[in-house]
Amino acid sequence: MYSDEIANALRTRHVQTQIARVVSFDEQAQLVAARDEMSRFGFDHAPVTRGGDICGFVCHSDLAIAAGSLRDQVRPLAASRLIAGDTPLVALMDALTRAAFLFVVEGTHIGGVVTPSDLNKQPGRTYFYMLVAALEMNLAERARAFFPRQDVALALLSDGRRDGIQQRLESEARDDVLSDTVAAMDLADLLMLVEKTDELRSAFGAYSRNRWANEVSKPVINLRHDVMHTVRTLANDAPSSLKRLTALDELLRGLLAAEEHPDTSGQ
User: Fold this and answer.
1) What is the pLDDT of residue 29?
2) Is residue 34, in this structure, part of any structural domain at all?
3) Same domain? 134 vs 249
4) Which residue in 114, 249, 259, 262 has the most C-beta neighbors within 10 A?
């Protein structure tokens, strides 16, 4: 399954923050100084070391007391806080729903840390871009199979969209680029074709036109904008952000896993 290939293409090590770049503290460090440094850099968690080795971590929210060392505030390095660097991103997202700060293990040592906001890095964006691109190709294949006459599909779109597609086709013809009508459609056009075609829509599940528009088209198009434009934030450490990405990952992989083209075809 193509979605499984995408799910395994990028791993946790690709989005981690290398341990050498992470602010950490010896367990003997003064609590006030650690709290201030974490505040200055915007860190919610930080590794704690003992004799140079990581022995646990502290949470900024635990450091409200005024004085003393970090020793009594250290949370242990439990197995639930460890994840292998080879773990696929889809499994990483699931793990982050249970613990929003994880140490990344490479062999016998800790190579880095990872939090939900690390999914905002280029590898995280690439992962979701590949899923969206795979869906776009899937929709195009289904449209070609269902509409032997692609002018019928074109007629389902708005006047503005039809004009834009015709201009694109004319431009490609002038450049001697061999293309068909469906190839000139973008993701929004293909999603609209499915929305307006009961047989195509039913291949993906029990979607009404309204549900398809609101539960598929809008979130998928917004996700595409998020991954393509780096000025937009794809992920942050808020639980709602990870919940959104996890739901989108499940949605996209579910759509890609839907049955192949329906037997009926358009005119």
Assistant:
1) 92
2) yes
3) yes
4) 114
